[in-house]
Amino acid sequence: MSALTRDANPPLTKSVEDYLKVIYHLSSQGGFATTSDIAGMLEVAPPSVSGMVKRLSDTGLIEHVPYRGVQLTAQGRREALRMIRRHRILELFLTQQLGYDWDGVHAEAERLEHAVSDGLIERMANALGQPQYDPHGDPIPTAAGEIEETELMPLADAPVGAKLELRQVGTQDAARLRYLADQGLTPGVLLVVSDRQPFNGPTTIALAPSGDPRIVGRDLAQLLWCREVPVEDRGRPAT
Q1: 198 or 29, higher pLDDT
Q2: How far apart, in whole angstroms, are the C-alpha atoms of residue 157 and residue 32?
Q3: Would you say residue 25 has pLDDT above 50?
Q4: Which residues pair with 193 in a beta bridge?
Q5: 134 within 8 A of 91, measured Cβ to Cβ
Q6: Percent residues over pLDDT 90 in the chain
Q7: What residues pair up with 227 in beta bridges, in sequence order?
Q8: Mean pLDDT of all residues in the chain?
Q9: Are 156 and 16 in contact (CB under 8 A)?
Q10: Neighbour tally for 78: CB within 10 Å
Q11: What is the tens place of the pLDDT at every residue in 205-220?
């Protein structure tokens, strides 16, 4: 049995699984998830969050530090990564095997991730060739409970002249995802930062290798996570 299967353990409720995922995302940079942040992401009232925090703490899934917030325990992190693996494999399966567009898979995966078995998820992963990334470029945790951690920068902060690979798209908003797809801005594309206007103005980029220009507003550029392309990779086609 892999580190991210729990067939021998009592199942967690959908609500608990959702809380663990949200706490993971909020505290993934080594910080704490606050009650107000959790309430905002889950769209629930703060008193409801307080009750769930006590429950999760009592069951050993989180650690609550007064006046700072909560962090996942090792057990809580494993459960969160198990759900994230489910979600991202489902998204990729829906796009690659069932023909969904990338802007329509998040809500479907949110519903399915609580219903399917770990065994089905592993069959999907095998059918997909044990993929590393979901359709939006987010890393898929391995069955052993490991997840890639790569230093990326938002396009909005990249210097003019930088050669970049777009690695992750940090939004699930369907309209934004459709727009990005229409512009050819999907994970794996190579680009060069051509210009940036002052006072939080837009960024102009050139797609590689075509050189086709695109103008990206700052709000959207903040959601496009990139890595600088090593010299030896420049000129290679995007994957």
Answers
A1: 198
A2: 25
A3: yes
A4: 205
A5: yes
A6: 88
A7: 165
A8: 93
A9: no
A10: 17
A11: 999 999 999 999 999 9
* Of the candidates 73, 71, 80, the residue with the CA atom closest to the CA atom of residue 31: 71
Cα-Cα-Cα-Cα torsion 224, 148, 115, 106, nearest 10 degrees, comes to 10
DSSP state of 49: H
pLDDT at residue number 230: 78
Q: Which domains does the chain have, with CATH numbers?
A: 1-149 (1.10.10.10), 153-233 (2.30.30.90)
| 126 in Cβ contact with 156 (< 8 Å) | no
Quick check: 218 and 202 in contact, CB under 8 A? yes
CB count in 10 Å sphere of residue 66:
5
User: Dihedral of the CA atoms 17, 20, 24, 26 (nearest 10)?
Assistant: 110
Residue 197 has pLDDT above 80, yes or no: yes
For the segment 135-145, the average pLDDT, to the nearest whole number, is 97
**The token pair that represents 71 in the structure block:** 């962090």
pLDDT tens, position by position, 91-133:
999 999 999 999 999 999 999 999 999 999 999 999 999 999 9
Q: Long-range contacts for 38-43 (Cβ within 8 Å, ≥24 apart)?
A: 38/70, 42/18
Question: Could you tell me how many residues make up the chain?
Answer: 239
Going along 37-184, which residue ranges are E strands?
62-65, 69-72, 153-154, 163-169
Q: Where are the alpha helices (DSSP H) in 43-96?
A: 46-58, 74-96
| CA 183/CA 177 separation, integer angstroms | 10
For residue 76 the two structure tokens come to: 């809580």
Cβ 83 vs Cβ 72: under 8 Å: no
